[in-house]
């Protein structure tokens, strides 16, 4: 059976690798993005995966976006909540705007998207929700009180919702990446990367987006129905829970 998947933030970085992995697994995939039309167009050209622009922080936009994907591709079976941002600052310098932007995209975005596919999944008695958290939601990180709060929130959200979805054939899981080689990493100064981050990773390198996509594709598969409420850490051994 062909499954339909939405990957938020699926036009580049980890999300693009996830979208491609689900396509390779036989799914019809819709990849969403926020504003980078150029990257999205290049991604569609490369992969044939349709891209859709809306802000996951906007509930009504998510509702309309999901309806559009369902009109184009059919009912959504798989949702990957991948869209995320950082707004780093030590807490004493963190502005309310930095706090709220992070919460609105990373945490409210997960609610907005999941809430808009949940009813259909319950009716059809099948669903796969995978949310991309972070090692920094598991262990905390200096200058990321906002980001860590959202990424820890993903895990609590998942454990609660997994209990609600269990009898309806819906699994709800988290993948928590460590440091992955994407544009998000380009905001980290080279000195911090070489002297602080890399020495903390036992495998001695950043992860690749494909290595996260592999874990997501595993959880999204039809035969992963007994795995729910779990967090798969993919962090090169940096933090073992
Ligand atoms: N990279 C890492 O090392 C790492 C580690 C742990 C966890 N993560 C998590 O993994 C996920 C993907 O990270 P990444 O490094 O691949 O990020 P990225 O390269 O910065 O890509 C982010 C994607 O999310 C989209 N996006 C951002 N805000 C959005 C919004 N409000 N509405 C809709 N789409 C939005 C972007 O769209 P545009 O292209 O239009 O901007 C883009 O497609 C995030 O949740 C991140 O927190 C990343």
Describe this structure in a few short sentences.
The protein has 241 residues and is of the alpha/beta class. Helices cover 47% and strands 15% of the residues. It has a single domain (4-233), classed as NAD(P)-binding Rossmann-like Domain (Rossmann fold, 3-Layer(aba) Sandwich).
Explain what you see.
The protein has 241 residues and is an alpha/beta fold. It has a single domain (4-233), classed as NAD(P)-binding Rossmann-like Domain (Rossmann fold, 3-Layer(aba) Sandwich). 47% of the residues lie in helices and 15% in strands. The protein has a 7-stranded parallel beta sheet, sandwiched between helices. β4 (78-81), α4 (96-124) and β5 (127-132) form a beta-alpha-beta unit. α1 crosses α8 (209-220), α3 packs parallel to α4 (96-124) and α4 runs parallel beside α6 (145-165). The longest helix is centred in the middle third of the chain and has 29 residues, at 96-124. The radius of gyration is 17 Å and the shape is globular. The N and C termini lie far apart (35 Å). The mean pLDDT is 97. NADP nicotinamide-adenine-dinucleotide phosphate is lined by residues 8-9, 11-15, 32-36, 39, 55-57, 82-85, 105, 109, 132, 134, 177, 179-180, 182-185.
